[in-house]
Amino acid sequence: MDIIDAHTHIVSHDIDRYPIDPGVDEEQAWHRDHSVDADELLTQAAAAGVRGVAFVQAISCHGYDNRYVVDSARRHPGRTIAIGAVRPDHPDARASLRRDVIEGGMNGVRLFSVGGATAPLDHPDMRAITTEAAELGVPVVLLAVASQLLSVRPLVDAFPSVPFVLDHCGFADLGGVESFPGAGDLFALADLANLSCKVSSITLQATAHPRALWAALVSRFGSDRLMWGSDFPHTNQPDYAGLVDLAKRTTEGLDPGARADVLGATARRLWPAVG
């Protein structure tokens, strides 16, 4: 089975070269208590049968300094890619994105809303950095929470040629019965042809019906716009092998083509350099 992990976080043990400089307001303990560096993560991925890995910038420890994910991906070509983070309202945002992509080989940019977790994603600074990403030809990864899902549409609509990826399915409300009545705002985005969804361990653990969730998402978005990511080690229960097993078990009900898409092919189409 060809598996690509589209969402991992790595933390350098060399804090002199790659300082710990959180870019979030609240301290997060995961990067102190159970962090892994690039080599450790790749060792675990290989043991679990994962062929390729996306290193996603962990702003809660390395902030917006993308050097560690970029350098790590360059050390493991053909197996890894780097998805960095940019603060859209920073004066040097566009220049830093261009540098990390052109000089560092970064494969995508992860964006957070300007103004906090309750602010809409469709902000002039978000549009400006998306324009830069479009010129550079890299996908835009959006981190949004459920209350922001309605603001995803105008941003994605404004850039029809840009591939967007919604992290963790926008933390949509996946509680309740198998019809997922609280996920209407997520499902309403399915007609946006340039928007894909990342179904992470967080997403699968947020529902009592993960198999039904995969089926519901495939029926709306299509398997070619869905991808799995472990979120390891931010998510670390169970261990890495257990998170891979969760993805494999919960996708068993999909037809072989759809299962191949969500476990690897979709991520590879979006990022051909991985795996």
Describe what you observe in this structure.
This protein is of the alpha/beta class and 275 residues long. The chain has one domain: Metal-dependent hydrolases (TIM Barrel, Alpha-Beta Barrel). 38% of the residues lie in helices and 15% in strands. It contains 12 helices and 8 strands. It has helices at 30-33, 38-47, 59-62, 67-75, 93-102, 124-136, 152-158, 184-187, 201-205, 210-221, 240-250, 256-270; strands at residues 3-8, 50-56, 80-86, 108-112, 140-143, 164-166, 195-200, 226-229. The chain has an 8-stranded parallel beta sheet. α6 (124-136) links the parallel β4 and β5. The longest helix has 15 residues, at 256-270. The chain is globular and about 45 Å long. The two termini are 13 Å apart. The relative contact order is 0.15. The mean pLDDT is 95.
Question: Which terms would index this structure?
Answer:
275 residues; alpha/beta; TIM Barrel; 8-stranded parallel sheet; 12 helices
